[in-house]
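Teaching assistant's notes for section 4

Start the section by putting this record on the projector. Ask students to predict, before seeing the second block, whether Peptide ABC transporter permease will look compact or extended. Collect guesses on the board.
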Amino acid sequence: MNKIVSSATDAASVNSAQANAPATPAKPKSGAFAHLVYVLRENPVTGLAFGMFALLIFAAIFGPMIVPYDPLATDAASVLQPPSFAHWFGTDNLGRDVFSRVVVATRLDLVISVAAVALSFVIGSFLGAIAGYRGGWTDITLNRVLDTIMAFPLFVLAMGVVAALGNSVANIIYATAIINIPFYARLVRAEVNIRRNAGFTLAAKLSGNSDARILAFHIFPNALPPMMVQVSLNLGWAILNAAGLSFIGLGVRPPTPEWGIMVAEGANFIVSGEWWLALFPGLSLMIAVLTFNLMGDGLRDIVDPRRRT
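Reveal the predicted structure now:
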């Protein structure tokens, strides 16, 4: 009888402890969308970052249609006006509305950043996967080429590429992609090199899978999580690189709205008191870079196969 009472007491204690335990997000059973929702609920900072990224995408797509003024239209009667209800971010030395130019510039900066990172991701992943899987002279040759690229200061290398090819948007993308390729190639090479002799890789070979299929469907998905963190960092670096090239005169040419150009033009007026010309484009640049940096952990959790089990 005492044993029965003791067992009932223990069961009641366990139920009470479970009832008082803090609630945690329920792990979804299956489905990519359910997994995405779970990741966003588990990490509120990731949800905030994706919300900020959605706002940037909205500004890039619909910005030119919703801005109150033409970003290229000049107005001699409204030169260098401070922020007001008529001009939220003030006007520049040609009377152009700074708010309209900042919003419209979002599209160009995001296009440069995303295109450059996508290009470097594809090329770097392919080269790194081949080198890590094959090894031997293929691996040695790739490493020497990457060492040569990284021997140069990366921004100086980008300056040289743009100066040689011309300061167009396409050449800025190519230059930014070139300096980012070594990051992905080295990362994928290391991940593939670790997993090429793993048990699941050997099992895939015994099952008759080709090397290309093993790389694409068995090894590469396991290398994606650390790469997603690198992607988020490179998106921020790519925007800073494009803005830096524009700041020194090797990027997008005026009067095209671009954050780097606007900061460079506004820097000439800071001493005379027109602080808003450089502040708002620089603040937009900072928010974009911060957004991409905060997205890293979330992207890693979304693509990580171990987080789906």
